[in-house]
Amino acid sequence: MSQSASSVRCRSAALFCSGSAIFVWQLRHPIVRFAAPAVNELLGLALGLGLPWLAVVAIFRIGRWWSKAAVIAAVLPLLLYSLIFFLGWAMTGLLGFDQFAEAHWKGSDVRFYRTNGGATTDFGVVIRQERTLLPGVLLVRRIDDFYPCFSLDAISADHGITITAKRSDCSAFADQRREYRLKPFVYF
After folding, report:
1. 180-188: average pLDDT
2. Would you say residue 35 has pLDDT above 70?
3. CA pair distance 179, 106, nearest whole angstrom
4. How is the chain split into domains, by residue range?
5. Given 4, 12, 15, 25, which is the most exposed site by the fewest CB atoms within 10 A?
């Protein structure tokens, strides 16, 4: 095997591994989302199951003895990961987020999502600031979340948004109101 083919395979393996890490980080702290929830679910399922397996294939293709040993050591945990990921998606994937309120603020939208992770969890509220990056693609920043909570009210202000809980049974929201400073371009 030539040196350039080996370096290309190493770069491919690194790209797949870093892509997998970015995907897992994106699940917990979303930055870019699609406007259609179904597209997010299907893409998340495909990438969540596919990227780790593609990374293992890329490492195997390096062709060295240590890469084959690493792949053999990774197959069983990866099978377990795939099973848990698929079961978790099947149990909670379709119940994820329901948008119930929205407030506009200087070219971006502050959206309120009701979360329901299934029969074993309470409802919660996640507040996100979203701005359209491209048609159908949103830049997203998580502002806050409250568990257990069913709904909150929002009022746009000059500096950001004010959250109140007048008609909600939101035990996680102890204050009568909270103010959040928002950024015009979501992150700056």
Report:
1. 76
2. yes
3. 16
4. 3-92, 97-181
5. 4
